[in-house]
UniProtKB/TrEMBL annotation:
Zn(2+) binds at H62, H64, H211, D299. It catalyses: S-methyl-5'-thioadenosine + H2O + H(+) = S-methyl-5'-thioinosine + NH4(+); S-adenosyl-L-homocysteine + H2O + H(+) = S-inosyl-L-homocysteine + NH4(+). It comes from the Archaea. InterPro entries: Amidohydro-rel (IPR006680), Deaminase_MtaD/DadD (IPR023512), Metal-dep_hydrolase_composite (IPR011059), Metal_Hydrolase (IPR032466), MTA/SAH_deaminase (IPR050287). This is 5-methylthioadenosine/S-adenosylhomocysteine deaminase. Keywords: Hydrolase, Metal-binding, Zinc. It comes from Natronorubrum sulfidifaciens JCM 14089.
């Protein structure tokens, strides 16, 4: 057995208490062996966590990772115009090379901000899976399926690709990669295709991941055409199973919150994207009160504009209070839970908790910083004050991906220059 000890720090436990302890990891199985005192003796490798907080690696519950290439390309627009005028025309020019470069950039940013796993909906998924495998992260990946603007044959092809990719990549990278069927949204995929393909995803045994109730403009046509609220419509289409999860859930009423609580379907809250596209304020405290599983996601970098889960946690707390008109709503512990166990439970990964037997997915945060002094409450610091650049070490599946801010699985300079080149070439093709 090869072991790794993370020593001398404080450790965030699953109940959000913090204790002084070492963490001992079995690097062969990728699991946490023990959390306790003086575990460094005899370990094959050590990570120093003095003056630091050891947290579960953050879980980004909803992303389009290669959209890093479009970061800063189209800002300050609402969802519909942003997608139709700016994003989709450029995405039509994506190639496997651009996806590889954008994904490398995205996962580099994730490792540097303590994120160890994520759920992603995009194109060229086998390429994304290859990058995730080499970078050492954990992910649930899938191909986004859309029917708007496509003829029937093209939609069937798109949906088939969604199913085939899900079957092909599930279990890759020693199980670090899993998959889902990913119809883009309840309005961009026509109901006939949802009825046809969601049962096929069930047969494959993969969950369904989609966008729902993001803007008022998405709710209205469903109510008008189907006579029910969007999540009741999703239930009719078989997309409200316990393993399913969707992004946003901004415009949901009490009946829909009740449906989610009953079905066990999870919501991935994306506060930065919701604020930037002015989509609205999700009623997160009401969902938590009803017992809905809520995770946290960045969405793509073009609507955020970064992939830091620490930023997202702060945004979630701030927006949650504003939405509830109550400063005690969505407190620090709630957003820390959402960024770790909440997202992990939502996307169906057994991670997000530091305990013996759990996957050794960890982030070590340097607390010796002006903006993290004094240390009355490390959980408060995580939620409100810590930044991506405070992450010292990142560990996934027992492997050290970043040590003292040096990323070991990717060549940082090469990733930045390839991404810049591919992003420039992509925009040039779209301009032609
Ligand atoms: N196969 C599909 C691709 C869908 S991938 C997922 C899509 O979600 C888009 N996207 C990113 N953020 C959001 C959001 O907040 N709401 C809805 N769509 C988004 C993203 O740009 C991408 O086009 C096709 O043929 O177009
Ligand atoms: Zn999205």
């Amino acid at each position: 057995m090869t072991t790794l000890a993370i020593t001398g720090g404080q450790v965030l436990l699953p109940d959000n208490t913090v204790t002084w302890a070492d963490v001992l990891v079995d690097q062969d199985s990728g699991e946490i062996l023990e959390v306790g005192d003086d575990l460094a003796g005899g370990a094959d490798d050590t990570l120093d966590a003095s003056d630091s907080l050891v947290t579960p690696g953050f879980v980004n519950g909803h992303c389009h990772v290669a959209m890093t290439l479009l970061r800063g390309h189209a800002d300050d627009k609402p969802l519909d115009a942003w997608l139709q005028e700016d994003i989709w025309p450029v995405e039509a020019e994506l190639t496997a090379d651009s996806i590889r470069a954008g994904t490398e950039l995205g996962v580099l940013e994730m490792i540097k901000s303590g994120t160890t796993s994520f759920a992603d909906m995009y194109f060229f998924v086998p390429t994304i899976a290859d990058v995730v495998d080499k970078a050492g992260l954990r992910a649930r990946l899938g191909h986004g399926v859309i029917s708007v603007g496509k003829d029937e044959d093209a939609v069937h092809e798109d949906a088939q690709e969604g199913l085939e990719v899900a079957a092909e990549i599930d279990g890759m990278a020693d199980g670090r990669i899993t998959s889902a069927f990913m119809p883009h949204s309840l309005t961009t995929v026509d109901g006939q295709y949802l009825s046809e393909y969601v049962p096929e995803a069930r047969d494959l045994g993969v969950p369904v991941h989609y966008h729902a109730n993001e803007t008022e403009d998405e709710v209205t046509p469903i109510v008008e055409n189907h006579g029910v609220r969007p999540l009741a419509y999703a239930a009719e289409k078989g997309m409200l199973e316990a393993e399913d999860f969707f992004a946003h859930g901004v415009h949901v009423d009490e009946s829909e919150i009740g449906l989610l609580a009953e079905a066990g379907t999870s919501v991935i809250h994306c506060p930065a994207s919701n604020m930037k596209l002015a989509s609205g304020m999700a009623p997160i405290q009401r969902m938590l009160d009803a017992g809905v599983t809520v995770g946290l996601g960045t969405d793509g970098a073009a609507s955020n504009n970064d992939l830091s889960m620490l930023d997202e946690a702060r945004d979630a707390a701030m927006l949650g209070k504003l939405a509830a008109d109550d400063a005690s709503a969505v407190p620090a512990e709630a957003v820390v839970t959402m960024a770790t166990q909440g997202s992990a439970d939502a996307i169906g990964l057994d991670t997000g908790r530091i305990a013996a037997g759990k996957p050794a997915d960890l982030a070590v945060i340097d607390l010796e910083q002006p903006h993290l002094t004094p240390r009355h409450d490390p959980v408060s610091h995580l939620a409100y004050a810590a930044a991506a650049s405070d992450v010292r070490h990142t560990v996934c599946d027992g492997q050290v991906l970043m040590r003292d801010r040096e990323v070991l699985t990717l060549d940082e300079d090469a990733v930045l220059s390839r991404a810049t080149e591919e992003a420039d070439a992509l925009l040039a093709r779209a301009d032609d």
